[in-house]
Amino acid sequence: MKVNRSMPAATVIPVLTYPDVREAVAWLSAAFGFEERVRIGEDHRAQLRFGGGGLIVADAGGSRRPPRDGEVTHAVMVRVDDVRGHCERARARGARILMEPTDFEYGERQYQATDLAGHHWTFSETLDDVAPEEWGGQSVGSD
Question: Dmax over Cα atoms in the chain, in whole Å?
């Protein structure tokens, strides 16, 4: 893949809509640890990074709308090194915790939260390398 400094390096890049881009960037940085990498206009879009991943924060307009209460149309999963510490940071900065850190049979510890606009997030810490067949999954294809 060609490098372009105007795009995040990640292969898959979620684009999430917020009513106020600048407020969202500040909140996502403080609560979840994202870092702003590119600003497009004062309140149009921003590109954020987290480890090797990327996220675009978009303004509401046209057909773009932030989530509505009571509806879940998507969720973003982010891998972190310390789920418990990350959860406490997010809680202290106003994230609504939907699921406390929980260990799962597939080798991950995860928690779920919503951000200031209602987007659903899952943060996941790898505890062990577990084959999908060990917990009822099925390996398909090659990685």
Answer: 49
